[in-house]
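Friendly challenge for the regulars: who can give me the structure tokens for this chain first? No prize, just bragging rights.
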Amino acid sequence: MSRALRLPTGWSLTDEEIQLYRLHLARVEEEVSIQPLPPTIQDHENQAVIETAAAGAVDVICTFDAHFYKPPVLAFCAARLNPGYG
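First reply, four minutes later:
Bragging rights claimed.
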């Protein structure tokens, strides 16, 4: 995660801010059991994010990663939030 937070996104976080954020996440995290899902996203590493989000019943995935904005992913997310969608 530290590597991702250092990517050029315009946030310009210091190492101390990154560490504080990581400590915050460690306090509020919730462990979930992941169930494999049919492939939803092109990047296999991002598939784990989708599966973790589904297992944790999250409302939002916040990312700048363009893979998450492709039609199959958007349809998957819409269906999870709105049963009967599509």
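Helices lie at 2-5, 15-28, 44-55, 71-81. The chain has two domains: 1-30, 36-86. Your move, everyone else.
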